[in-house]
Specification:
The structure is a single chain. The chain is mostly beta strands. It is built from no helices and 15 strands. The strands form three sheets. A five-stranded parallel β-sheet has the order 1-4-7-10-13, with no helix packed on it. Strands 2-5-8-11-14 form a five-stranded parallel β-sheet, with no helix packed on it. Strands 3-6-9-12-15 form a five-stranded parallel β-sheet, with no helix packed on it. It starts with 5 loop residues before the first strand and ends in a 9-residue tail after the last strand.
Length: 166
């Protein structure tokens, strides 16, 4: 798989975590992961553990020129404050990312207290001084979440620089 390639996932229910291992690039174009035209691929977290602290059904770590499009992402849960289920989890650094026309729902924590968290979509820049930039989030539906003390969509950077105020 290389930049410019498209992975069209046939309609059906997939009970697994997806860790995106590839990037596109400016010369070859975007690497695209999408539901097959006219079908809906469902990434379903039913029965899946949150394997490490905060973890997504889709995990994008420091990739660039990537499109995630047209998936249903659902049913990812925890009962523990030690684990944070996320529908789409973007972290590290990267550029030219597009999250388009996905339906994220029923991501839940049933843990109690201020450390109970779940997220529909998380974007965390964690590779200072590099950033996550040129990010497009468009046409997504995010609903029926139980986020505890967290948010439906969360973005966070370790360091922000305002030009002229460094």
């Amino acid at each position: 798989m290389a930049g410019g390639d498209t992975v069209s996932v046939r309609g059906g229910i997939y009970r697994e975590h997806v860790n995106i291992p590839v990037s596109g690039n400016s010369a070859a174009g975007y690497t695209t992961f999408q539901s097959y035209p006219g079908e809906t691929a469902i990434l379903d977290g039913t029965g899946l553990d949150v394997p490490d602290g905060q973890y997504g059904l889709f995990n994008i770590g420091s990739q660039s020129y990537l499109i995630i499009q047209g998936f249903e992402i659902r049913n990812y849960r925890t009962t523990s404050t030690k684990y944070v289920p996320v529908g789409i989890n973007i972290y590290g650094a990267g550029s030219n990312l597009q999250i388009l026309n996905n339906h994220i729902h029923h991501i839940k924590t049933s843990a109690r207290g201020c450390n109970a968290n779940a997220l529909g979509l998380a974007v965390y820049g964690t590779q200072e001084p590099d950033s996550i930039n040129n990010l497009t989030i468009s046409g997504n539906e995010i609903d029926h979440l139980t986020t505890g003390c967290s948010e439906t969509i969360s973005t966070r950077w370790q360091r922000a620089v305002l030009r002229g105020h460094e």
